[in-house]
# Entry
Amino acid sequence: TPRGSFETGFYSGKYDIYDESRLTLISHLREAIQNRQTELYYQPKIRLSTGEVVGVEALMRWFHPERGWVPPDEFIPLAEKTGVIKHLTRWVVDQALADLKSLQSVSPGLTMSVNISARDLLSPGLDELFATALETYGLQAGDVIVELTETAAMDDPDKGLQALERLASSGLKVSIDDFGAGYSSLSYLKRLPADEIKLDRSLLQDICSSDSSRTIAETAITMGRSLGFLVVAEGVEDEASARLLATMGADMLQGFWLCRPAPLESIKDWLLTSSSVV
Ligand code: C2E
Ligand code: MG
Ligand code: MG
Ligand code: MG
# Structure
């Protein structure tokens, strides 16, 4: 496409949080969705024991006509602060589930992981949003995984827990994203109705070169599995790490080593040509 790709695209802006341009930027985001400047990319996830592709994660991309590709780490926090996240999440859930229906025609049983923010979790209407999209596209609730960070769930622990339990009881799967990246309250983790935890890239980065990193990663995997969670290693960039994580007992893996996030059609092609990856 004339836009090039987000993955290789040039991005020069670093916005100050009080910079007026950030406010201008965010005021454009709502229109951007309508004007098709936003797009979902998908990144596959495999089961390590079999190499089977089990699902994909939806990752939002925004091509701003003047600024070029704006990374989600820039606009998602802004969208959360300004309340625009509500519109964004509405679009993401609908688009991701429509695309899941299309991906399942190539790869039956595939799951779709959708990132949501703390603000989404605590605002009413999230359950209906998923229920409506599931019905519209004729999908099973169990094929959809809701990813949120642990800090998001902890924003208001009691309400967060209630909201998560509601999602889980409707049949959706719940995943704790970026585990190990922030403050991790193990006693809270134990109470979360989650099916999966995703070990943050920062936790796995040096496992091939550092004994202490390896010990921490292995301990996190063992703990997660003992608590009954499926454990996903995310951000894996090389084969040596992938093999090590498999021997440490991680259930699933995502990362550039396997496949970079890519547009729907590219992921469809990838799914058709990579029936066994490892
Ligand atoms: P995340 O959910 O933890 O997603 C993983 C991030 O790591 C993605 O960055 C992905 O492109 C990147 N990644 C995957 N494999 C590798 C690897 O091997 N090496 C490295 N260095 N990076 C890898 P991305 O797409 O820039 O998204 C950043 C964050 O923005 C996401 O982190 C998520 O928290 C948020 N985000 C993205 N899309 C959405 C969305 O639709 N809604 C919400 N609420 N948040 C989103
Ligand atoms: Mg995620
Ligand atoms: Mg993550
Ligand atoms: Mg993240």
The pocket of magnesium ion (ligand 3) is lined by residues 177-178, 198, 200, 234 (CB under 6 Å).
